[in-house]
Amino acid sequence: MPCARRPAGCPPFLRLPPGLRLAASLALVVSALAASDGRAQPIAITGGQQINVLPGSSSTADSILVTGRAEDPPTRSTYNLAGSLTLTTSAAVATVSDFGILNVGVTGSLSSAAGYAEVTTDGLLQVSGSVSIADGVFAYDGGQVTLGAAGNITGASLYAAGASAFSRTAGGTYTVGTLSIAESAAVNVTAGDTIAGDVLVDSAATLTLATDLALPAGTLYLNQGGAVSRTSQSIAAATLDVGTDSSLAIAAGDSFSTMLLHGGGQATAAAPLTLAGLTVTGSAAGPVPSSLAAAGTLAITGSGAVTVSDGGLVTTTAGIVGDGGTTISVTGADSRLVTGPATGLDSVTVATGGVLETVAGTLAADTLSLSGPGAFVRTGGGYHVTNLQLAGGTLDFTAADLVAAEIAVTDGAALQLLDDLALSGNLVLDHGGALTRSAETIAVGGLLISDNAALALLAGDSIGALGIATGASVTAPAPLSLTSLAIDGSGALLDLQYFGGSAGQIAWALQVAGDQKSILQGYLASGRITTGAAPGPVAAFYDLAAHGNVTYVGYITAVPAPSPLVMVTAGLAGVVFARTAARGPRRRTG
């Protein structure tokens, strides 16, 4: 049904099948014959009638029906209006069908404060004067509207479906809320035309611009092969919506607030493009994805979002410029964002088969979240982020990259270090997350490891807080200094392999800030801290006066030598003992 492709405001009458529409039209004739209460009567021109209304006349009618007969040759009914006719119903106030002709002459005017005009099945509405119908004019199913040089059509909508549904002589104009064309219709926009709302170009229809198109609060819809033809004219619209089998080459003078590409719709932009939001989603059944190819930079304003999903493709090799609150989401199989330098981004999320590809420059964002194998492809450039979340897949960390605060590696993902890593916050490894490296070191505010993960520290590593949980293990081949340590009772452990630290007579492998003696002693007793490499008994030591506010895990290296006074005292005691032994026991007397 042609009407099904029109805006949501399509009158209920137009949703009827053609046969029922004709029956409803004929019912207007019956109501004209039955009316007798003094109200304005319907006008019905049928069966080959020819009616002429003279200039200067003024009349009122409930509605007007002009219908001929589809014979061979067809029988035409004609209503020539050179005067003024006002219609009063709120449904189909004017119906032209079956070779009927409604001709509004240069001096004629047809108006209605409600309802709509319907032109179908080889009906013809000729407008050389003025037609003002509140809900608009709809031509489809073979109906035709011709607009003469002095003609004007005013209404909420102008809908034309069919290759010959609309034509006009230069000078004729329309003033409408919505312009909707379909089924290979061809409609042009000239300097005298006004469109207050949306323009819909559907099913191989063509909108030809003879002047700039301005839709400050409206949307330009292109769908099912609908196209725009122009030379140097510009388009300014609140939204550009491009759907199946349609495309638009965005010119340097064009401007849109938001852009939606879906169902295989495509757009190209040779010049820099500024948007408040971009959504590219879905693929058509055909061979092409929904896509935007931007040769210049893509600027996103107003904390807007770039959303690429379900097979969408965005290529902007010149890069993306956000305003600090900009978000980017790339989700769904075969969805891909290919970008050069990107700045001013709040968050970038890539998941469920989506791919982010950097070709040059730096991707700068507060948070970069990557999920799944192949979520990040680096042809060139690097990433500078505050927080990195990696779930599944493998990500390289190179000299071109920077993570300032925190990294979480989960769900079997692996972070491959190709350069030293320094974080002010935590490095989190859980749910199979792993850190792989050769000689690269880590300096982190905290290391939180769980879910049976295992990590071997290197001699140059620096860790603030260490948390080990749910079967995870950490191996320390060098003395380890921590601000805090927590090891749960699920089989998690810390293996201390080298007691190279020295605190007086204590050789230590672990030091933790504060008085942690009882906690660390408990970890040793329960096997949460293992010390197989120690040559002597290991314990936790805390002596504020001797060592400061630090608890050590280590062993005593030597027994302190006695002082000289103790040695003299011991020597004298030995002499006394020797003499006493030589004399033997003293006998009692008396």
List the helices and strands and how they pair.
Elements: H1 18-34, E1 43-46, E2 50-53, E3 58-61, E4 64-67, E5 77-81, E6 84-87, E7 92-97, E8 100-104, E9 109-112, E10 116-119, E11 124-127, E12 130-133, E13 137-139, E14 144-147, E15 152-161, E16 166-168, E17 173-182, E18 186-189, E19 194-195, E20 199-201, E21 206-209, E22 213-222, E23 227-229, E24 235-242, E25 247-250, E26 255-262, E27 266-269, E28 273-275, E29 277-281, E30 291-294, E31 298-300, E32 305-309, E33 313-316, E34 320-331, E35 336-339, E36 342-351, E37 355-358, E38 362-371, E39 376-378, E40 382-391, E41 394-397, E42 402-410, E43 414-417, E44 421-422, E45 426-429, E46 434-436, E47 442-449, E48 454-456, E49 462-468, E50 473-476, E51 480-482, E52 484-487, E53 493-496, E54 501-503, E55 506-513, H2 517-526, E56 529-530, E57 539-542, H3 544-547, E58 550-556, H4 564-583
Description:
By secondary structure, the chain is mainly beta. The protein contains four helices and 58 strands. The chain has a 30-stranded parallel β-sheet that branches. The protein has a seven-stranded parallel β-sheet with strand order 25-27-30-33-35-37-39, with no helix packed on it. Strand 54 and strand 55 (506-513) form a beta hairpin. The longest helix is centred in the last third of the chain and has 20 residues, at 564-583. The radius of gyration is 43 Å and the shape is rod-shaped.
Cα-atom Rg, whole angstroms? Answer: 43 Å
Low-confidence stretches: 1-38, 563-590
What quaternary form is this? single chain
**How does the helix and strand content classify structurally?**
mainly beta
Question: Helix share of residues?
Answer: under 10%
Q: What separation lies between the terminal Cα atoms?
A: 143 Å
Q: Which range does the strand content fall in?
A: over 45%
The chain-level mean pLDDT equals: 89
The largest sheet, given as strand count, sense and whether it forms a barrel, is: 30 strands, parallel
Number of helices: 4
Q: What is the overall silhouette?
A: rod-shaped
The overall strand count is 58
